[in-house]
Design brief:
7-stranded mixed beta sheet; 10 strands; 184 residues; 3-stranded antiparallel beta sheet; alpha+beta
Length: 184
Amino acid sequence: MARTESNMLPLGTKAPNFNLIDTIDNTKKSLTELKGTTATLVMFICNHCPFVIHVNSQLSQLAKDYVSKGINCIAISSNDVKNYPQDAPNLMKQNAVDNNYIFPYLYDQTQNVAKAYDAACTPDFFLFDDELKLVYTGQLDDSRPGNGKPVTGKDIRSAINALVNNKPINSNQKPSMGCNIKWK
């Protein structure tokens, strides 16, 4: 598994809009309709990446813990499904069911959304405030497959909690690390 770090989009960047197919219900959904009232967490993930598999339960729990606070999570897969068929939309839907995702799992077939966000790896995280300005980008936490550290989501949870409580978010943010997005 290749280790690729996220590109760290500059804080304050406005979230690029999108209109993508939600593989769970096969309908098109846009950022403007999915955004949270308090914040929006955009996550670039995929089905087969061991880094994503390692954190799947935490992604599901994170969404459940914060949805009542106006935080909406959105997952996007931008991988090339011709060369990585395990990331195909029908399997994305099954993955969402298997991992109890309560958030949409969108398919970025053209990879234009990943490029607009400067996403580089899976998982790659982007937390936007209520005005869709980037306030956090980076890792979920320090856990990686095989390093023995527990998956807690502490880095993103810290940023979300600060945002919810109108506190400053730590600007010293560590890049996420995972498999590279599988470009066409």
